[in-house]
Amino acid sequence: MILEHGAQILRIDAGELVGYQVNGHEYIHQKGSPGWGNSDTEMFPIIGPTAEAGFQVQTPRDAAIQDQHGLLRELEYELISQTETEVVFKKSYTARTPVKNSKHPEKSNKPFLYWTYDFEFEKKFNLTENGLEISFTVYGERDTPFMLGYHPAFNLVTENPVVIAEEHSISLSQVMAVGSRAFKVIGYEEVILKDKNELQIRTEGFGNFMLWTEVPNMICIEPITFYPYEVEQKNLHEGFQYLPSSSKTFKVYISVND
User: What UniProt keywords apply to this chain's record, in alphabetical order (predicted)?
Assistant: First the structure.
């Protein structure tokens, strides 16, 4: 699926952002390149690892079985609507429905995962004159607990890229040194990736980022509602927020600074 707007070309595969070109330059990490087997995904309804807690996360309605970063990524997107510049996808889940765990048996002893609440999750891509807008809307009953993280991977082409968060400049070597825990950037709704060009990533509703990579040719700049390594895995529920009504929307804006 390809959307175009001016000098922008957006490529989407089954709800996954697999390409974003502006003036011929590709900003998204390509599958098959070293670093990661995906180009984007979502972390929901939890963020972070669960192995040390027996793959259990406590909710107000009993414990749920969750693997790293939740079960949303195990569900398939349904195409809802499409225009020349906008496309909408949705995933739906019924409480306590077993979902096959792709990490079993190599990385998990749990063949199935489940959550204790119904939810619908909408992902919308919109190309505008100012760049790419990605919105995520969580639907459910009021007070449904959740965390949300967006996990895009960006292509790197220079030797010394940096991520700028206001007065802070974070080098690629700093991010790589933290390893799998990811470099935390807490309390910011905007960062700038300085590589060949400047890429601005601005958010609404997340409030934080974490940065991760193990290779010099890509970096994941991940908007998150909660940094999971602030607590022990058994206390991961401390990072929940709760739906204030029947839905809540989060946004990510990606644009190239000329």
Answer: Calcium
Peptide bond into 105 cis (omega under 30): yes
Alpha carbon distance 25, 198 (integer Å): 12
pTM of full prediction above 0.70: yes
Q: State the number of CA atoms in the 13 A half-sphere of 195 facing the CB.
A: 19
pLDDT for the residue 133: 98
Residue 48 pLDDT exceeds 80 = yes
